[in-house]
Known about the structure:
The complex is a heterodimer. By secondary structure, chain A is α/β, with parallel strands linked by helices. Chain A is about 35% helix and about 25% strand. Chain A is built from 8 helices and 10 strands. Chain A has helices at about 45-55, 95-105, 110-125, 140-155, 170-190, 200-205, 235, 240-255, and strands spanning about 5-15, 20-30, 35-40, 60-65, 70, 80, 160-165, 190-195, 210, 220-225. In chain A, strand 1 (about 5-15) and strand 2 form a beta hairpin. Chain A is globular. In chain B, helix 7 runs parallel beside helix 10. The relative contact order of chain B is 0.11. Chain B is about 80% helix and about 0% strand. By secondary structure, chain B is mostly helical. Chain B starts with a helix and ends in a 5-residue tail after the last helix. Classes of the chains: A alpha/beta, B mainly alpha. The interface between A and B is medium-sized, with 26 and 18 residues.
Amino acid sequence: MEKFVSIENVGQTFDTRKGRFVALRDVNLNIARGEFIALIGHSGCGKSTLLNLIAGLTRPTAGVLLCDGREIAGPGPERAVVFQNHSLLPWLTCHENILLAVERVFGARERKAELRDRTLAALELVGLTHAGQKYPSEISGGMKQRVGIARALSMQPKVLLMDEPFGALDALTRARLQDELMKICAATKATTVMVTHDVDEAVLLADRIVMMTNGPAATIGEILAVELERPRNRLELAHDSRYAAYRAAVLEFLYEKQASHPVAA
Amino acid sequence: MTATTLDATTDAPTKIAAVAREPEGLRMAMPRPLPDAAGAATTLAAGSAPPPASTALPATTDAAVPAATAAGKRSGRLDAVLRSVLPPLLGFALFIGIWHLATQSASGLPGPVQTWEAATALFADPFYRNGPNDQGIGWNVLSSLQRVGIGFGFAALVGIPLGFIVGRFSFMNDMVNPLISLLRPVSPLAWLPIGLLVFKKADPAATWTIFICSIWPMIINTAVGVQRVPQDYLNVARVLALSEWKIVTRILFPAVLPYMLTGIRLSIGTAWLVIVAAEMLTGGVGIGFWVWDEWNNLKVEHIIIAIFVIGIVGLLLEQSLIALARRCSHEST
């Protein structure tokens, strides 16, 4: 299998006031180009830590991470991150927020008009053409998250990293954004890694679900390949026995094999 | 990195909190803004859904019909205005009354009537010039403001960039912080002789004093602002791999601006406090010098007028900066 992103024997320890804390150990994972990976596990299991490692925001204390054959030495626009809390800059309009990213990636090669077109295209992709001139404080949580996704996609990243992007949204908004995300991923063929704690979201979106054991010293427990044909439709899947089986498998892992200890819950 | 930076400055934020409380206390002493807040609260209650408005009004009964609530709303607004205007007026009236009573029994202190008469005479011609030591009160206030402006301007030019550097690099923070902690509590007037020695003239020495007292809040607030820029924004900068210039202009500067404006407000407040004392010592033209001069002339009513003028100018400076800060503040999301 093609190794577009490969994570080899990665471990992460943090030096805290109470001493060393082993967050991750012996993590091995290969991600193919265009694949959608969902990272799932109980809170505190190091999902976000692993995502930050792929993003290059933190460096591993053991092992190595490669992207497209090169070591991940730091963060960069080829691995765009959609943050959990969207992290839009409140003093810039939605358009300006995206433009900031577009300028960074394409500013050296392209003229202003082209950069503007890219920004508008990104806004259109997430259906927010009308909200370009609004400030983040003037739009809803779901819209902010869509701007965050648009900003990430506008950079045409090799890998799209999402840290519980829909976690803070209500169920209806979340479902709509999941559908949009599926369309976008199908259109852009983006390699995506998404941290989630939502079993349905993982089964619906992912090609493979990477299930993490409980921390400390968390690692990958099981990997479940979701072989449901695309495009996927949530209504049809609701009656699909395979969908139910996948869902059950993840639930079983989370609530039987990795029954959360009360402190972590 | 952030953990150590925060540790190193743990005393800086608390100090700022202490400094920040200072003008709050001053404002509390003045009767005006307090009822403002109360007024805002009542207007809010009146502006929201009818039920809370009607409960807020003792006049309307519990069984308020819709027609009655409309009337209740109107009287609610009147009530709010009354509540925001009445207490300060009462406060001033009480103050003037006590002042009047206290000055009845001789003691040489001029009463409100005397002071008012002197004030009308004084403000009839605020911009006269009879030589360098006898100028109208307008000129005196303006030259004090000019000194504050110049000293403060230099302090901003030096303090804000320095604050950015101190906030951005923990090494600089560790280096400068003890020094600031040592020098900040020193009364700016202690620096006046140094200014006289270096500049050989009274006027720049007074400006220098303003510079010294304005610079600390500016450095500290800017630095704390830089350190408190949310990690999320910096992560965005890192993921986008923005240049240091873009980080400063697009992320740090807008994020720090509210903190910077707080520093500016505190600086201006202190500067206006200090200029009066500095001018008493250096002489020349200025409201502080004027106070001292009128003391020498034994025109006590003029001193009282000066106290009001200083207070009003200080209030205006503070309020205009608060208004500016409100305009520049972005809703964090």
